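# step 3/5: fold
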Amino acid sequence: MSGQIELQGMVLEAAPAGEYDRRVVLLTAERGKITAFARGARRQNSLLLAGTVPFSFGRFRLYEGRSAYTLVGAEISNYFDSLKTNFEGAYYGFYFCEFAEYYSQENLDGTDVLNLIYAALLSLQHSERDKRLVRSAFEVRLMVLQGEFPQDVVADESLRLGTRQAFYHMIHAPVGKLFSFRVNDEILREIQLRTDRIRERLLDKPLRSLQILKTVTETETSGDEGSMKTGKE
């Protein structure tokens, strides 16, 4: 085992390992996606407990092994606690993490993707922002970063002008301003339909968290509609 290293990153996934340990997938700026094991992290008094929870962002101290890393410490600067208490927001966050994990690789610079998911999670915490639009902007930019998103979509005259302008923004805007725009419902639906089509063509497997997110949002929409009907009655 080599000497201790320190990496900036975010926990994308966490799962039990053995009786008291936890396996985490980290997206790091310096080494991309890595897998680490936190010994005893599931014990209530463990100092590693808070640093092995999805969305936790900060500095992670690790030892590098042959096939995985061992997590020995973490200084977390943002837990995104408000997402964890927001049922819908949490599932959007889980989807963002799985999508980022799908594209991330080990030993490749993960700075751009890390900055993107951090900004996306921050945006999910703003109640005035439409989570559906945040999701579309995240998906588009992540695929752009991988060199896979067809940027000629901005010239597709079968789309509304507002839709093409929105795609241009999502492709080119600085990440700090990526999520600070609005569109009407017609434009949003067109963005979603085209983005879904492109994502489904590019990905070679379904994302489980996306299926759960769709179920959650569709259920909530149906519940809202039912409440409206009851009110009118």
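# step 4/5: annotate
Residues 4-79 form a domain with the OB fold (Dihydrolipoamide Acetyltransferase, E2P) fold (CATH 2.40.50.140).
# step 5/5: archive (pending)
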